[in-house]
Design a protein that fits this description.
CATH architecture: Roll
Radius of gyration: 20 Å
Strand content: 25-35%
Distance between the termini: 69 Å
Helix content: 25-40%
CATH class: Alpha Beta
Order of helices and strands: HHHHHEEEE
Number of helices: 5
Number of domains: 1
CATH topology: Nuclear Transport Factor 2, Chain: A
Structural class: alpha+beta
């Protein structure tokens, strides 16, 4: 008796597709670090509209308005950043990232440095910054 591998391959493909469809609600760990780096690069080079796109949609206008009010295009300089740690939650839907961030905001000329905790959430197949503890963006702190 000769067995066909077609039904077995079809069944395996269907199982894989089902698994992938279910996992769309779980964050992709391989895309987290590039997302954090993209945010850091955007703020370092004062690309605040680009940085805002990495925030949860409901936080974008607040972030951009705060940058305008503080005149951050002229007055804020991110001098250094380094991602130190990133941890995914057990359910894969949130992540906490710790970075060392250094900056100064005119008229102050002394550099500030802090460990900044950034909280990311997985939404619409992307990581979005939800809030931050410490750092130069007070409007991103938890209420």
């Amino acid at each position: 008796m000769k067995y066909s591998t077609f039904p077995l391959c079809s069944l395996m493909a269907l199982a894989l597709l089902t698994l992938l469809a279910c996992n769309q609600h779980v964050g992709n760990p391989s895309t987290l670090k590039p997302r954090i780096e993209k945010f850091h690069q955007a703020i370092r080079w004062k690309d605040f509209p680009g940085a805002a796109k990495l925030l949860q949609p409901e936080k974008r206008a607040l972030f951009l308005n705060a940058r305008l009010q503080a005149n951050d295009v002229n007055d804020l300089s991110i001098t250094d950043y380094e991602l130190e740690q990133a941890e995914l939650s057990a359910d894969g839907k949130t992540a906490v990232c710790t970075s060392r961030l250094s900056w100064f905001r005119l008229p102050q000329i002394s550099e500030q440095s802090a460990l900044v905790k950034s909280y990311f959430v997985w939404e619409n197949k992307n990581w979005y910054l939800e809030r931050q503890e410490n750092g130069p963006f007070e409007e991103l702190a938890a209420p």
